[in-house]
Design goal:
globular; three-stranded antiparallel beta sheet; about 325 residues; CofD; cytoplasm; pyruvate-formate lyase- activating enzyme; alpha/beta; single chain
Length: about 325
């Protein structure tokens, strides 16, 4: 654990998938007293997509991932993260389903409440925090994509999380349907109570930015009495952000949420930016009212090369140092 005299009282982490997973592990490294995982709900692939279509529920996959990150129990009385993450093999009807997805879906049907289901699974797995959907209905991502026609200026609409994440074209902008869903009141409450808020890392257009096209969420982040930190991805992802520079990732945040205000943007220094590139990144961050923090936050091999994922201990140390700077 990060050894610090000043642990966050309440840490609210926004995102989804593997990126949020690492941030939640970092929050535990920091000994945060209370952790709220605010999770995107637009997944339409795999086990989540099947349950979403068959049961007309919020897709449970990203929610399960967040619970698994918070549920590190090895005690016999606790439901372990590995059990939540386990997928059925074979070729039958259960093939490909994650145990945690089925448990969440079953409890949601039995209780009539997705939040009640998540809280119960959190209790069973001794989760060190609470998982909260950003809205209380499933969302669909729609992207404006260029490069799918001979004329590179022609824009096509691509619909669905999987389709957007894997498009061979260039994603220019995303929106969600329904267009203006009411934010989950529990998510807004968590943001208002937090003293440290993180956004990212994760799939930029399908896990991070969907939070920022919900106006109430942007307003809650911007007016929060908290340290607000964006954790930038370590690299561009094949598909949705292919060819994106770190600077363009920041511009995308402003483009989708011009009212967003944050304090710091954490950028991994493994990329060895030139002085000019660092200057451009800092100017881009200023549009959000933010300062760039260059730091070593990636997992490394023995030879020093990056493994392409954030290291929770390193990220926790950086977030702690930023948190300690506050008056």
């Amino acid at each position: 654990m990060v050894n610090t005299h000043l642990a966050p009282r309440h840490m609210a982490c926004l995102g989804g998938g593997h990126g949020l997973y690492q941030t939640l592990l970092a929050a535990q490294e920091m000994n945060a007293k209370q952790i709220s995982a605010i999770v995107t709900v637009a997944d339409d692939g795999g086990s989540s997509g099947r349950l979403r279509r068959e049961m007309d529920i919020i897709p449970p996959g990203d929610l399960r991932m967040a619970l698994a990150a918070l549920s590190q129990s090895s005690d016999e009385t606790g439901l372990s993260a590995s059990v939540l993450q386990h997928r059925f093999g074979g070729t039958g009807g259960l093939a490909g389903h994650a145990v945690g997805n089925l448990l969440i879906a079953g409890l949601a049907e039995a209780t009539g409440s997705m939040q009640a289901a998540l809280d119960k699974v959190g209790e069973l797995s001794q989760a060190q925090g609470r998982v909260i959907p950003v809205v209380n209905e499933p969302l669909e991502i729609e992207a404006e994509v260029s490069g799918l026609d001979e004329d590179p200026m022609v824009m096509r609409t691509v619909r669905g999380q999987v389709a957007v994440a894997t498009t061979p074209g260039n994603v220019n902008r995303v929106k969600i349907a329904p267009a203006l869903p009411p934010a989950n009141s529990l998510a807004l409450e968590a943001l208002a109570q937090a003293d440290l808020i993180t956004l990212g890392p994760g799939s930029w257009f399908t896990s991070v930015i969907p939070h920022l096209v919900i106006p109430d969420v942007v307003a809650a982040i911007s007016k929060a009495n908290a340290l607000r930190v964006v954790v930038l991805n370590l690299s561009a992802e094949p598909g949705e952000t292919q060819g994106f520079s770190s600077e363009r990732h920041i511009h995308m945040l402003y483009q989708h949420a011009p009212g967003l205000e944050v304090d710091y943007i954490v950028v991994d220094n493994y990329l060895r930016f030139s002085a000019g590139e660092r200057s451009h990144l800092c100017r881009a961050a200023e549009v959000l009212g933010a300062e760039v923090k260059f730091a070593d936050v990636s997992k490394r091999k023995e030879d020093g090369t990056t493994l392409g994922v954030h290291d929770p201990a390193k990220l926790g140390q950086v977030l702690t140092s930023l948190y300690d700077r506050q008056d």
